[in-house]
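Follow-up to my earlier ticket, as requested here are the two runs.
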Amino acid sequence: MGMDIKQIQDLIKFVSKSGVNEVSIEEKDFKITIKTAQEPTYVTATLPAPAPAAPVAAPVSAAPVVSSPAPANLATTDESKYITIKSPMIGTFYRSSSPDKPSFVNVGDEIVEGQVLCIIEAMKLFNEIESEVSGKIVKVLVDNSQPVEYDQPLFLVEPA
């Protein structure tokens, strides 16, 4: 059925981590080119017709994207009491205001309403994302400098 948005995002993450400048994949009815610079990653995709998504030949050195171990520390039934803070926009997620600054928040931090939790950069604009709740950060669901979708969960908060 062609590549879905998740595969494309994974590909972008892989390309940006691997330090390659450009990757093109061409199937018979679809083509995608990902170019990275030090600036934001640009993606041009033409998807005229569904085509089987071929597995991307990745160098063995590319470590699989490991978010965090399965919620062993959180009983799954428990997650309902947590509040999920979601991304209000599409962009790139940053945990701190610049690479040499500490993260705005870490797991275990107490947060208050209106506190800046992260920055989402969209088209060169850095948007500070403030918490709508007070509580404690239980989990950070996105790695620093990863692309995020609108409404994608970013943080899990135990309400105060």
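Run two:
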Amino acid sequence: MIRYALKCEDSHRFESWFQSGAAFEALMARGLVTCPDCGSASVTKDLMAPKVAASRGEGPAPRAMTNAPDPDLVEAISKLRKHVEETSDYVGDRFAHEARAMHDGDQPHRPIYGDVKPEEARKLIEDGVPALPLPFIPKQKTN
């Protein structure tokens, strides 16, 4: 999709989206691009400024399109990991068993985290056992 700034013979300015530059040209040739204000089919492309970042003090500038992670997100996940590791017990691949036992009242409740296979996770959710995925790999599973 491409957006063009347009202007009619009466200087009415408007914008419109087109599937491509070629689609715009084809619609223009058939007289199908018209001014929404006066209906004139005598339309030309107008000057269009690129979108730029706001001036200082008006908010953050957009981040560049890169594969670099958002530093604020990295910091938030790091803080979450630290909190989980300090306040919860790592139960490894016994997570589904431990979570179900606490949910059923067979064990006292305590905060846990660990590993679970996708089919086990689905079954926990279906059975109403509270569990959420974490946005990090437990340190016990990293080298």
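The only thing I checked on run two: The mean pLDDT is 85. Let me know what else you need.
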